[in-house]
Known about the structure:
The chain is α+β, with helices and mostly antiparallel strands.
Amino acid sequence: MDTHYKIRKATASDSHRVPEIMLQAMEEMIFRLIRQEDQQAAVQFLTQLFQQKGNLYSYENTFVAVDMNDRIIGSLTGYDGDRFIELRQPILDLIADHYANNLIPETETAGGEFYIDSIAVAPIARGKGIGTKLLHHAITHAQENHFNQVGLLVDLANPNARKLYERIGFHVGKKTYVAGSAYYHMYMQLT
């Protein structure tokens, strides 16, 4: 595979690929939201949200890594943590209306930060530094938009991801739980 790629803002038309990549980072959570362990149903759920504006998983909040043939090989979704509750509401409405699920997962960010909700790289592109480039792009975006901090959650069961984030400059913060799973909130101060 060609290792040359660029990072750009996602568009609604990227929905043919991005939700499938996003699911790799959030499968357990999405299965809880849709109350079934069905990858096709999960991709459809994410596709619907990705194509719409004004929710956590919208294309508006996503950057994609594309190769020289314009194939999407990675994605990062992030947003203003102060908007989490507002951006989460359309998802809660959707799961209540279509999946009979009244779950309200814990808030993932305390706000006051650019929050990285998900980052994933297609299996064929792993190990090429794409995830790191996406993270650096998000950090630059946060700086350009005057955020004081970048934050994310890392699963306690994923020490390799934690090491990657620490190498980039993130620090381990408090332990938190979201929908029954344990995470560390990791953060990077920008000021």
